[in-house]
Amino acid sequence: AGCTSGNGGSGNGSGGETLSGDIRISGSSTVYPVAQEVTRQFAEQHSEVSFNLTRDGSGGGFNNVFIPGDSDMNNASRPITENELQRCRDNGIEPVEFFLAQDALTVVVNNEADWIDSISLEELRTIWS
Questions:
Q1: Using one digit for the tens of pLDDT, what is the confidence trace for 9-52?
Q2: Which domain holds residue 17?
Q3: Helix, strand, coil % (nearest 5) of the chain?
Q4: How many domains is the chain built from?
Q5: This model's pTM is above 0.70
């Protein structure tokens, strides 16, 4: 998306071809550091390609940037919802999903915290809601 081949070839950058263009990537703040590093490494090999990378959140990126057609890719830390998929299709976009990584959340309690011995998922849900 957003790249063109300098000599009408396959556009993969091999055989002396030059890639160029602008790629807009929106979406997940969780995936942002990975996307930042991937785009940095890609740009080292293809200096004529520029990236506009933003942290909009998975849903914010889908709803506010990708579905309206204002980005080429949307990073998401979750699968696309049926509603988002339908809205993409209604807007002439057929998204292609690439599984990149899996993330996790770990809750750590300071050993000096004498006020807590354990906490349930429901209690954590209440704290962060």
A1: 444 555 567 899 999 999 999 899 999 999 999 999 999 999 99
A2: 4-103
A3: 30, 15, 55
A4: 1
A5: no
